[in-house]
Structures are given as C-alpha cells and as structure tokens.
Design brief:
Shape: elongated
Strand content: 15-25%
Number of strands: 14
Radius of gyration: 27 Å
Number of helices: 13
Largest sheet: 6 strands, antiparallel
Helix content: 40-55%
C-alpha cells in the first residue's frame, strides 16, 4: 500500500509539477491550494506526510504547522516545509515550531524524494513495535541501518549459550555490550563489604540487561549469573553507542525499548528497602512467579536455593529459611528439597501488600 502525502502549495505550476513527481514515485497525493484548505484535508483524512509551502494566502505554512501540532490526530505527521527563502531565521523558526525538514526552492526530483524517504523511514521506526526477542532486535537494527549515520551497525549479533551458575559478566569488569536474554533465567547480583550477596535484578527471555554500565561509561556495578541454562544475544558496545548517540529518532525508540525494565528495577529496590522480612520473602516468591510463570492458572513451582531466595528478598539466609517454614506451616507454599511451589497465591499476595 502506497504512502499518502498531502501537498499544500498555492502556486499552480509548482503544485502540479511536485504532485506529478510524487505520483511517479508511487505515492498517493492529495493537494490543497492554500493553508486553510490543507488543514481541513489533514483533519478529514489520514496522511503519512505533509509537504507545505510557507508563503501562502489565507493561512501561511507556519499557521498550518501551528494548527496541526495542536490536534492530537495530526500532531505526529511528519512535516516538510517548502520555501523560496533560505534565511537562517526562517529555518530556525520552522524547526522550533516542530517542522521535520526544509526544502528550498528550486529543488530537484532527487532532493525531494530523498527528503520524503528519510522522513517516512524515521516515522515508521517510531511507530513500529519490536518484539523482545532476537528477531525483534535484529529487525530494529536493520531498520536503523537504513539511516546514513548508522550504516556501520553490525549485520548480526553474537549469540552464546551459558550453563547454570556461569557468569556472563563480573562486578567491576568493563562492559562489552548490551545483552538480550533469549531463553533461560538470569540474576544480577552484587557483594557488599561483608561478602553478602544482594540480587539486584531478575531476568527472563525477552529482557535486556547490562546497559547501565554502558550508559554511565563505567564498570559493571553487579555481576550477571545464570540461574537456569541460558542463551544470550550481545549487541557490541560500539553498536550500542551508535544506537544511543548517532540519531535522535533511533535513540528515542531504543531507549523506549529499554525503559520499562528500568522502572521495574526501581520498584524492586524500593520494596527491598522498606518491607518487613515476611513481606520481603512473600514479595520474592511472587516476583519469581510473575517473572517466570509460563502457564497462568497453575500453581507455580521453581527450583531455587535458599541463598538465592534470600538474596532476592534482601535478608539473611537464616531469616529466609525461618519465614519459608512459617509459610509452609500456613499452607501458603510447599517445599520439596530446593523446589518451592506456591499453593495460595491470593493469601501470599495479601501478605505482600
């Protein structure tokens, strides 16, 4: 399906010639002879991009952009100005108002089509949703490689397998890249001055991790250790920095893909700081269920050591063992060796809250 473009231009020859170029490039084109007519069309129909002259009767291009930016339906449509004036003040005014690009008359066919393709590509990048898996990551990177500034991105990212208890990276080491957990379970943890381990994060397939050190340009503040045999995809450090710093649109989308996990991590740390021991153990068990349960409605079971559970809860192992025993006596959980099964989710949830 071809992209639909609205062309707002008061000069009949310019309007006709520009529309013809766009149609030959397989775009669907609607035209308006002044700003007022253009705004009405933009509000009535869906357009993928708007090209608008600045100097027009009835309503000039600045007025068109102002009105469309106030309308939720039209505010996100990519907007390109056409102008015969090339003064710096005109460029700055349009960009400050939210224009995406400028074309100065006279322009040739290639200039016009390149500008349109670039804006549509950026718009598609922002609107598209990318799955939290290798295919989604590769699709995002492939789209990003369509921008001139990002052509050097790697074609493929490294995929590695790890065994249980194996370290992916160590606290105090320099980061090598961004990690995406493809399958398995991973914890991040750090050790305090007394040698006690605190789990700082839990990750399942589809989760990104290891990027805080990259963003801070610092050593890893914690270690990443495998809880269950895992496959991990790594985006090299150089590519990570390209995605974050080389292109504003790509950066916004990339950070959006990572941001939800940052919020989850902050919420977990707050709970660790303020909850009682009983609440912390209940929260740790429910966190494991919410993170790793694959079949909703069934009792959740997971093999996990008392030490790991204590580190997730942020309390001593002895306190964790006593609390687990209490929860078992209350028939909220069942314990078989290192396997814990949640029997009464509602009561455990009430205990957490």
């Amino acid at each position: 399906m071809s992209k639909k473009i609205l062309l707002i231009e008061d000069n009949p020859d310019m309007r006709e010639n520009t529309a013809e170029i766009l149609q030959l490039a397989n775009y669907t084109v609607k035209t308006a002879k002044n700003g007022k007519e253009g705004v009405a069309l933009a509000e009535e129909e869906h357009f993928d991009l708007i090209i608008c002259d600045i100097m027009m009767p009835v309503l000039d291009g600045y007025g068109v952009l102002h009105l469309l930016s106030k309308n939720k339906k039209t505010s996100a449509i990519p907007f390109i100005f056409l102008t015969a004036k090339a003064e710096r003040t005109d460029f700055r005014k349009g960009m400050e108002m939210g224009a995406d690009d400028y074309l100065t008359k006279p322009f040739d066919d290639i200039e016009l089509l390149n500008a349109i393709e670039s804006r549509l590509r950026k718009s598609d990048l922002i609107k598209q949703e990318y799955a939290n898996n290798v295919e989604g990551l590769n699709s995002f990177i492939q789209t990003a490689r369509g921008f001139d500034s990002l052509k050097r991105l790697s074609e493929e990212n490294e995929l590695r397998s790890y065994k249980r208890k194996e370290e992916i990276y160590k606290e105090g080491s320099f980061p090598k890249g961004l990690y995406l957990l493809v399958s398995g379970k991973i914890k991040t943890c750090k050790t305090n001055d007394d040698g006690k381990e605190l789990i700082t994060g839990l990750y399942k397939d589809g989760d990104y991790f290891g990027y805080i050190a990259l963003l801070e340009d610092a050593k890893h503040a914690d270690s990443a250790v495998v809880l269950e045999e895992a496959q991990v995809c790594m985006v090299p450090k150089a590519d990570f920095y390209e995605l974050v710093y080389k292109n504003a649109e790509v950066s916004r989308k990339f950070i959006q893909m990572l941001s939800n996990q940052v919020q989850q991590r902050e919420a977990q740390l707050l709970k660790l700081a303020y909850n009682s021991a009983r609440k912390k153990v209940a929260d740790a068990l429910l966190t494991l269920q919410e993170k790793y349960q694959q079949k909703p409605g069934e009792n959740f079971s997971m093999q996990i050591s008392r030490e790991d559970l204590a580190n997730i809860a942020g309390i001593a192992t002895e306190s964790t063992i006593r609390t687990l025993s209490d929860l078992k006596d209350e028939k909220l959980i069942e314990i078989q060796s290192s396997k814990i099964t949640i029997l009464n989710y509602p009561k455990l949830l009430a205990l957490r809250n």
